[in-house]
Design a protein that fits this description.
This protein has three helices and six strands, in the order βαββααβββ. By secondary structure, it is of the alpha+beta class. A hairpin with a 5-residue loop joins strand 5 and strand 6. The chain is globular and about 45 Å long.
């Protein structure tokens, strides 16, 4: 499993605009093989921004890479710069390879590297 995350420092007076962009856009993620889930998270408020994170869960790093090279990716990000700025700079990308999973039943397993 691979998790791709972006962190956004959203201007405090633009949080509604930022969220509206996400809720109104077409993501196309469900069209890609290996896609598992997407979450948009609102985090702590700081002096000059509110921290947000988005993350997608993929079956593998290869599935994530397929998304970044797809027409669906280009369509989903085509209008990314069209709106009035809502963030302090560009998002910060972080990618994580899952190495352990603990299930709701308490079972734990090591996940093999891809």
């Amino acid at each position: 499993m691979f998790i791709a995350m972006n962190r956004f420092k959203v201007l405090k007076d633009r949080t509604q605009d930022f969220e509206s962009v996400w809720f109104s856009r077409q993501s196309y993620l469900h069209e890609l093989p290996g896609f598992k889930a997407f979450h948009l998270l609102r985090g702590p408020e700081r002096e000059d921004h509110v921290l947000y994170a988005s993350h997608t869960v993929w079956e593998s790093y290869a599935a994530f890479e397929g998304w970044t090279r797809s027409e669906a990716f280009r369509k989903a990000h085509a209008r990314a710069g069209d709106n009035k700025p809502t963030t302090l700079g560009h998002p910060e990308f972080e990618g994580f390879q899952a190495i352990q999973e603990v299930a709701a039943d308490g079972s734990a397993r090591r996940i093999a590297a891809e």
